[in-house]
Write a structure and sequence with these properties.
By secondary structure, the protein is an alpha+beta fold. The protein is built from 2 helices and 3 strands; from the N terminus they run αβββα.
Length: about 70
């Protein structure tokens, strides 16, 4: 566990969890092409989106779909 940073007033809080432990990174994998994705936060005027890490687009690349692993069905 890492040492907590002191607050501006000099006090040091003893957190039960580090920031990394509170928000673990769970990879999102595209079910169609198998590539990693991430969530782009939304806002009052914008919906949350899930996009591919490599392209920043929601849609799969056509070449990636051709190489997608077979799901066995």
């Amino acid at each position: 566990m890492t040492t907590p940073e002191p607050a501006p007033d000099g006090r040091v809080a003893s957190p039960a969890f580090t920031a990394q432990q509170r928000s673990p990174r769970i990879p999102l994998i595209c079910p169609r092409c198998g590539h990693e994705q991430h969530v782009v936060p939304g806002g009052p005027e914008r919906a949350v989106k899930v996009v591919h890490v490599g392209t920043g687009r929601e849609a799969c690349e056509p070449d990636d779909l051709a190489k997608a692993p077979d799901d066995g069905s």
